[in-house]
Amino acid sequence: xxxxxxxxxxxxxxxxxxxxxxxxxxxxxxxxxxxxxxxxxxxxxxxxxxxxxxxxxxxxxxxxxxxxxxxxxxxxxxxxxxxxxxxxxxxxxxxxxxxxxxxxxxxxxxxxxxxxxxxxxxxxxxxxxxxxxxxxxxxxxxxxxxxxxxxxxxxxxxxxxxxxxxxxxxxxxxxxxxxxxxxxxxxxxxxxxxxxxxxxxxxxxxxxxxxxxxxxxxxxxxxxxxxxxxxxxxxxxxxxxxxxxxxxxxxxxxxxxxxxxxxxxxxxxxxxxxxxxxxxxxxxxxxxxxxxxxxxxxxxxxxxxxxxxxxxxxxxxxxxxxxxxxxxxxxxxxxxxxxxxxxxxxxxxxxxxxxxxxxxxxxxxxxxxxxxxxxx
Amino acid sequence: xxxxxxxxxxxxxxxxxxxxxxxxxxxxxxxxxxxxxxxxxxxxxxxxxxxxxxxxxxxxxxx
Lengths: 376, 63
Prior knowledge:
The structure holds two protein chains of two kinds. By secondary structure, chain A is of the alpha/beta class.
């Protein structure tokens, strides 16, 4: 005898979906959603995510990817313009872009190996950037996600290229042209405000204006070439009045030059990079420098910061040669030392007693020089 | 492009800010000004802040 159940057939439960939790969220609801999906305590998921973040940073990438790819369970009610999610997306895009620029998207040590990590990073940053600019959430079909990621990556790369181009154009003396482009874009925007349709100009105009502002503030002058330049004159006649390098490392080695007693002026200019002046042990060095952003290290004395005017005008006893150095550093470091080997010991704060140990030619008469003109 | 009843707030503010910023940068590039980080930072941050503010206000009005 067959029997049928008396209770009516109920609807099958809806398929289980992984959604970010809007009720149990600390940042974006990813861990809360994972805990609900797998039926485990979200706190355990959070502990695991933090552990993954600390062990190579994989947890950060997983979290960021889930944040932009996985919809929230409150998405339908909140609509696509959930302001909190947009703020988080802006923060992620900014952090990833800055990290990518700082570390060159290579060798981040995220534990994923090879190019997988940087590419994943770039794609997530692209999705977040596209979300920020267009308002299109990164959820949807795989095709839509790929399209938005590609558009976002293209946008980031385009902005990066514009910024780099603006930096070098400004540094090489094209600041007037770049500033004129900014003014033209601004004027076009004002005109378009009354007829509509040119909001897209805001982003490229800002992207080219900010590097120019940085170059102007730091006083970066890239004229003089790029790369490494090592100058090692053998006689006094070969020493020029000044040396300049646009970007890179400039080393002026004067240790083989027999400087006569008295002052010898030398100008050192570098747009961005590192300038090193090497002098013999019996040469006293007086230094003044203008630094946009960076530092100066003269023997045991050093200093750094922005908009810095360095002044270390030491006197030399009679009969001692004194090198009067005038530095113009846009972004970087000016060093003066006796040895070609970089000083690796920890830097000390200014200690008057330590001067004798490093630049003692300024304080003691050098017997081998004999008598001569008095300095300073 | 078609004429609109009222000017687009974001485009108007961003345009004016960029024109002012561009003029300041042009004067510095031409040697008439000598900008430093101390003077440039408030200008740059103020410019970006004004554009973001205009963007937020215009977005709120469009809703």
